Amino acid sequence: MADKQPHLNGAYYGPAIPPATQPRYRHHHGRSCCGCLFGILWKLLVALIVLVGLAILIFWLVVQPRSFKFHVTEADLTQFEYNTNNNTLHYNMVLNFTARNPNKKLSIYYDKVEALAFYEDARFSNYDVITHMNSFRQYTKSSSPMSAVFSGHRVLTLDNEQISELNQDKNDGVYDIYVKLYFRIRFKLGDVISRHLKPKVKCDLKVPMSKIGTLTLFRTTTCSIHF
């Protein structure tokens, strides 16, 4: 009779059997779409910047825009007296300017020009050189004359040092006066007109006192322009 196998009770004493792993599903589809969209937008932005830069470069090379030039060509100062009793400055001065448009393709519209005169950092007069009533167009490669008349009196409070400088200028016969000019201009290229630009001009002048019967020498002064 064959040997009977011992009855097994179902217990298993071998190495542990690891549980079956569940398959993992990676949800990267949304992230991939976002990354692709960001990459496309970034490339479009870079392309747009390059195209704008090329357009500006081509415009600059073709048009070669330049700022206008401004000079004070003549100065006639017939009165500049300061009364220390009532702190009043009496003055009479005429300045002639020349505005030069050096551009070959751009013309300039002068819509407004205001001139302010200063002595020792104190403004003593202002004058509307150009207003909207007499605005004008300056064509390419051309120059235009302008004039400003400063006449009248103004109360100025000058300290002892400033009065000393004024007396020194009076003895020398030459006054350190500077003029600021405020512009409203537009540039025109073909049929296209730019928006208003507001450059500022400063002219540091040494103005001699004019004497009747004598020729007053004034050195043409180039003014600085800031946009």
Automatic annotation (TrEMBL):
Entry GO CC: plasma membrane; plasmodesma
Transmembrane segments: 40-63
InterPro entries, alphabetized: NDR1-like
Main location: membrane
GO biological process, one term: defense response to other organism
Keyword set, alphabetical order: Membrane, Transmembrane, Transmembrane helix
UniProt name for this protein: Late embryogenesis abundant protein LEA-2 subgroup domain-containing protein
